[in-house]
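Predicting holo structure, zinc ion bound.
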Amino acid sequence: MLIDYHLHTARCGHASGTMQQYIDAARQVGLTEVGIADHIPMYWLPSEKRDPEVAMTDKELTGYIVEVQQLQQANLDITIKLGLEVDYIPGHEKAAEEIISSLPLDYVLGSVHYLDGWGFDNPEYMHKFDQWNLYELYQHYFDTVCQGAKSGLFNIMAHTDLIKKFGHRPNWDLSPLYEQVASTFAESAVSVELNTAGLRYPALEQYPSKELLKVLYKHKVPVTMGSDAHNPQQVGQDIKIARQMLIEVGYKEIATFSNRQIKYCSL
Ligand SMILES: [Zn+2]
Ligand SMILES: [Zn+2]
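Done. Tokens:
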């Protein structure tokens, strides 16, 4: 079963194309189920500090929900789930929870894009990698990801090793960190996303790496797939490669979600 649970929309200010174009593209790629998971409004910042090129505004949230529901009504041959990509910002869990619980979501993707306010996946702030010992940075990053998993806010942890996006990798053995991530995900009953966007960046591989994916599989962490598409051309991109990798690692089922409840389907 081919799914893509990580699609953005033009509402976030850095994606393009209409939602119908995303669905037309999904059909072409042969996806049977998709999930729209646009960025949550920047709830952890006062309104005047929110960047319209990062996420939709509070006011746009209602329109987003309605548009996804209408999209399903207009495209009955393909299952369309309502998701939301939610930034995990330590200390702001309550504000996130308030928004999430007010919406009829099928699933919530949990993402770490910021470490102590540093948007590390934004090329504009890439120079800050130089200020870090990379192993300590990875430790800090994965600690934050684990804290997010434990928060109970999320169904699926998105692009779990995003910190490698621009190719910064410590030459230390990362397996103790991978064990920590996988056991925390298993205990917290979150799923993990196999996200193909890393193939489009200097990381040159999916998130998570095959090595981390193997550890996640060993801990029986359920898995979904996503392209992180920010335009219709990226819908389902490399998703067949991702599916093949899941099979190689041993996965036989893919996790899908309705009303925040997990359901397993054969891969
Ligand atoms: Zn985005
Ligand atoms: Zn993301």
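The longest helix spans residues 58-74.
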